[in-house]
Amino acid sequence: MPVQQKQDDLQLRIILQPKASKDQFVGLHNNELKITITAPPIDGKANAHLIKFLSKSFKVPKRDVLLEKGELSRHKQLRILAPKIIPEEVAKLLA
Known about the structure:
With 95 residues, the chain is an alpha+beta fold. The protein has helices at 45-58, 88-94, and strands spanning 3-6, 9-17, 24-29, 32-36, 65-69, 75-80.
């Protein structure tokens, strides 16, 4: 499952595409949520940008977006602590 509810938190399994034309949720890709971001995959910039994008999308502070697995990979697992809102693209995968 690309998106799972764990008590108040959300766990996301994503595939990240850096250096894209815009930051967005793309949809399902091989049982992972595909996300594109504009930052390049250099010196942790893509991870930092991804965390910023997710914190805005879920209306939580950046410290509440935890990168659990995949720091140096395109395949990542993240936890969103008590999201204030759930973006439509993610809510569809929870249903």
